Amino acid sequence: MERAATVVRQTKETNIELTLGLDGGEVVVDTGVGFFDHMLTALAVHGGFGLRLKAEGDWNVDCHHTVEDTGIVLGRAFKQALGDRSGIVRYGHAMIPMDEALGFCAVDVSGRPYLVFDAAFPQERVGDFDTCMTEEFFRALSDNAGFTLHLRCPYGKNSHHMIEALFKACAHALCDATAENSTGAVLSTKGTLSE
Does residue 195 fall inside a structural domain? Predict the structure, then answer.
């Protein structure tokens, strides 16, 4: 069974079409936000995911709606592609260095959304990307995918490096958590991970 999903979301603020493949595929990302494209590409490549994404947003305002709504759509795609979440490893974690910065991520693909985010960025912007939107992206992803997601960057001096370490740590954690387990079992004492 193919573990993939396509999600389209249109509002007065954004128009987003996204296709996600959990087991790989082409990676083509265009959100109109160069640094955000770089981060989403890193998430897909390091996670081993296929990702085709086209997003148009209200850049006359700022990057907020585009970044947050992309998190919403990506989260929904993960939720659909995972189905009832049976047969997956469920948990993943990773610690990734990026020069002077260190990013940590732990994830439970549990169906229960919860975000813990601990990072203070020294620069307010990286290109056209507001660094405060990093947390908003991951919150939208967590809420819409049903992930318990813990992200931490305990130190760093360069916001680019810090954010990239977090995205790559998330990628590796999600790669492990969404991988198929050896038994096909649901890793829950309840017997289900859906809802």
Answer: no
* 137-153 residue pLDDT tens: 999 999 999 999 999 99
Q: Which two tokens stand for residue 41?
A: 């590409």
- Give the pair of three-digit tokens for residue 122: 């020294």
Domains contained in the chain, number: 1
Does residue 187 lie within any of the structural domains? no
Do strands 91-98 and 101-108 pair parallel, antiparallel, or not at all (unpaired)? Answer: antiparallel
64-82 vs 34-47: helix crossing angle, rounded to 10: 20
Which domain does 88 fall in, by range?
4-178
Determine, yes or no, domain membership for 194.
no
The SS3 assignment for 114 reads strand
Residue 82 and residue 48 in contact, taking contact as beta carbons nearer than 8 Å = no
Rounded Cα gap, residues 47 and 23, in angstroms: 9
Q: How many CB atoms lie within 10 A of CB 106?
A: 19
Buried b (16+ CB within 10 A) or exposed e, 129-145: bbbebbbbbbbbbbbbb
Q: What residues contact 133, with CB distance under 8 A and at least 6 apart?
A: 63, 64, 67, 68
Structure tokens at 152: 């931490």
Q: Does residue 25 belong to any structural domain of this protein?
A: yes
Strand-by-strand arrangement of the 148-155 sheet:
91-98, 101-108, 148-155, 114-118
Considering the chain, what percentage of its residues have pLDDT values greater than 70? 93
